[in-house]
Each structure stands twice: as structure tokens, then as C-alpha cells.
UniProtKB/TrEMBL annotation:
<dbReference type="InterPro" id="IPR029068">
    <property type="entry name" value="Glyas_Bleomycin-R_OHBP_Dase"/>
</dbReference>
<protein>
    <submittedName>
        <fullName>VOC family protein</fullName>
    </submittedName>
</protein>
<dbReference type="InterPro" id="IPR004360">
    <property type="entry name" value="Glyas_Fos-R_dOase_dom"/>
</dbReference>
<dbReference type="Pfam" id="PF00903">
    <property type="entry name" value="Glyoxalase"/>
</dbReference>
<feature type="domain" description="VOC">
    <location>
        <begin position="1"/>
        <end position="126"/>
    </location>
</feature>
<dbReference type="InterPro" id="IPR037523">
    <property type="entry name" value="VOC_core"/>
</dbReference>
Amino acid sequence: MLDHVGFAVSDIKRARAFYEKALAPLGITLIMEVGPDLTEAGGTALGFGSEGKPFFWIGDNERVGEGTHVAFTAKTRAEVHAFYDAALAAGGADNGAPGLRPHYHPDYYGGFVKDPDGVNVEAVCHSPE
């Protein structure tokens, strides 16, 4: 089971604005902010999550990595669309419109965007329609 995931961003303010808007339709909000005085590498770390638990972290204290991918669970296919639309409106780039991806499994319904740093971010619903 995945507890949390984190990756570096080049501009913490831009990334914060993007993820606050893009993740809102999934019920994921900013839960915690850790300032430079408390991080080992001296940057800011932001923890997004739900029900009081941050499980998705971004920070400006490390080098932005290539090939990073993160997928968030959506309860419904409508949530996948809402995430995709919100992410594009927040400055993300299309990386695969919402739809079935049967090469993963028959009910795999995902929508993909690139965040402002080019990270591949997805919302996926595994339930039948």
C-alpha cells in the first residue's frame, strides 16, 4: 500500500496554485506546509491529502526529476473528467484525455495531464461505468 509520494518542483508557488485547483475535484487539499527551517535540504515542502493525512508532497528543495508519474484514485469517471478539466484550467497540458485504457484492464478509465514542470499526473477510476 502506498503511504505517500513526493517529488521536486521548480517553482513552489506555481506548483501550489496548480495542484490546489487540479486536485480539488478529487477531494484532495493542501494539509501541511513545512518551511525551509524544518526541511533537511532547506526548501519548502507542501503536503496534499484528505481526511487530515498528507500523502502527496511537492517541494522546491531538490532537483526536478524526469519521468515522474503519479496517479490519483478517482471514485467515478466524472471525477476523472473534473480533475482533467481543472488541471487544464490551472495551466496543465493535455497528456491524454479522459477515457478507457483497456490495455491496462477493461475498466481502467484515466485522464492524464502534464503539470507546469512536465510531470505526468493522472486521475484514474477502476470501476465500471
